[in-house]
Design a protein that fits this description.
- 26% of the residues lie in helices and 26% in strands.
- The protein is α+β, with helices and mostly antiparallel strands and 160 residues long.
- It has a single domain, classed as Gcn5-related N-acetyltransferase (GNAT) (Aminopeptidase, 3-Layer(aba) Sandwich), CATH 3.40.630.
- Strand 2 and strand 3 form a beta hairpin.
- Bound molecules: coenzyme A (COA).
Length: 160
């Protein structure tokens, strides 16, 4: 398996991959129209020359203080993992783990000390949270206490 930065040439195959997942119509529409991806933050996993996984995120996020633990971090840059998807036929074989690890390496190389994700509350949430826990993320209370636990973020400090 190979993990690499996505390029705009990947748009058709990414549209093909994401059309099977109803959670990300926005990216699907972009890719289906031949736009993006470009810049850091978006990676693909290839097996035998075919893209089987995708992760998109940003390393220029500045709203860490939306979490109680990071109330002091106003205007500090951190990374956010926005979405990821692995082809159903390839799930549970390490693709997602490798994608997140590469994203975290990129985050550290960008000089960020924290990365966070909002696990999809409509997915099998317990299983999804275990996935991120194994990668060093822990559940964090949002600064807005009215947000229900199903929508809480998970964050990982660079010390692990
Ligand atoms: C979640 C996902 C990215 C993990 O990628 P993967 O390549 O399957 O993961 P790995 O093989 O590296 O690790 C396996 C672990 O991933 C998690 N996982 C795998 N499939 C999953 C699924 N359908 N739903 C929730 N978690 C899943 C489990 O924790 C699993 O460990 P377990 O078998 O001990 O329960 C992938 O399953 C997927 O694309 N799911 C659908 C889309 C999604 O939920 N994206 C995340 C949005 S935040």
């Amino acid at each position: 398996m190979m993990i690499r930065l996505a390029t705009r040439h990947d748009a058709p195959r990414l549209a093909e991959l994401l059309k099977h997942w109803d959670r990300h119509e926005f990216e699907y529409a972009r890719y289906a129209n031949g736009r993006g991806p470009n810049g850091p933050g978006t990676h693909v996993a290839e097996r035998d020359g075919t893209i089987v996984g995708w992760l998109t995120g940003s390393h220029t996020n500045e709203n860490a203080n939306a979490m109680e633990d990071y109330a002091d971090l106003t205007n500090s840059r951190c990374s956010v993992l926005l979405a990821m998807y692995v082809d159903v036929a390839h799930q549970d074989s390490g693709v997602g783990t490798d994608l997140v690890e590469v994203f975290l390496e990129e985050s550290a190389a960008e000089g960020n000390t924290m990365a966070y994700v909002h696990p999809d509350a409509n997915a099998d949430l317990e299983r999804l949270r275990r996935f991120y826990e194994r990668l060093g993320f822990t559940l964090r209370r949002p600064a807005n206490r009215r947000i229900s636990m199903a929508h809480w973020p998970m964050a990982r400090d660079s010390a692990g």
